[in-house]
Design brief:
Layout: H1 18-32, H2 36-44, H3 47-58, H4 60-63, E1 70-73, H5 79-85, E2 99-103, H6 106-116, E3 121-125, E4 138-144, H7 153-163, E5 164-175, H8 180-202, H9 205-217, H10 221-230, E6 233-241, E7 246-253
Parallel strand pairs: 1-2, 1-4, 2-3, 4-5
Antiparallel strand pairs: 5-7, 6-7
Helix pairs in contact: 3-5, 8-9
């Protein structure tokens, strides 16, 4: 049954509170980091690349500003960051502000550092629930398939709102559960096929058993939008991708 306490956040097997949930998620992503990119592309049939690019294009109006201060939190190995960087201006003086790529799993972050080497990005370790940024200091925050893993969804949205400048925007790309026939077919793949294949390729049964459970626990689109409003966002919207398998939640921090 879908969890009705939408603020609760992720609860991997064996976790009893926010601290143990965060620890379990960090350890899990550190374990699967060596095969993370391969698994993402194989299990999504490379559709994930299209989702990152589409998300980045939604924020083109911010990314094309050289002075825009951009954070990609829960960056994993840096694929969403790469999509953002493709839309940053080049050949301008002074050079544009670097995109900050942040994650709290060291093994994932090490792969992001290698992928982003030589690009206008700054890679740093950070927890999405305790961001090391001043109030109102960012213009854009994105997160791709990471927000769902936070130990407290409401606290994550409030932290995003805290560090965004008035008028700044947040984009949360994550999985959803489509309805209808597509939903039934996808549910079979997501709950039966994907965990089996993912566990075999990664040699980590727990991680890919956790994935469908985390999606089932995640708030439905309208519930997420309401939480975003309560956290201080306006003009909130959800755009489904690929029949609702994934989607982009977007909001603008209210101007006082």
């Amino acid at each position: 049954m879908r969890n009705q306490d939408h603020a609760a956040g992720s609860r991997p097997a064996g976790a009893s509170d926010e601290a143990s949930s965060a620890r379990a998620v960090r350890e899990m992503f550190d374990r699967i980091a060596p095969r993370y990119d391969l698994l993402n592309h194989v299990l999504s049939c490379n559709v994930d690349r299209l989702w990152w690019r589409r998300t980045a294009r939604r924020f083109r109006h911010i990314l094309e500003r050289p002075d825009a201060r951009v954070l990609d939190i829960c960056c994993g190995t840096g694929d969403m960051t790469m999509a953002l960087l493709r839309l940053r201006p080049t050949g301008v003086e002074p050079p544009p502000e670097p995109v900050v790529a942040a994650d709290f799993a060291p093994a994932m972050l090490e792969r992001a550092r290698r992928k982003l080497a030589g690009r206008p990005a700054r890679v740093t370790e950070a927890d999405a629930l305790h961001l090391p940024f001043a109030d109102g200091s960012l213009d854009l925050i994105t997160t791709a398939f990471g927000f769902r893993n936070l130990a407290n969804y409401r606290a994550g949205l409030e932290e995003f709102s805290r560090v965004l400048a008035p008028g700044g925007e947040a984009g949360i790309l994550d999985f959803s559960e489509p309805g209808g026939v597509v939903g039934k077919l996808y549910a079979f793949y997501f709950r039966r096929v994907l965990p089996a294949v993912g566990s075999w390729l990664s040699r980590d049964r727990g991680a890919y058993g956790y994935l469908p459970e985390s999606v089932q626990r995640f708030p439905r689109p309208e519930a997420m939008l309401e939480m975003m409003r309560q956290a201080g966002f306006v003009d909130v919207e959800w755009t489904p991708y690929s029949f609702g398998i994934a989607g982009l939640w977007r909001g603008v921090k209210a101007v006082a």
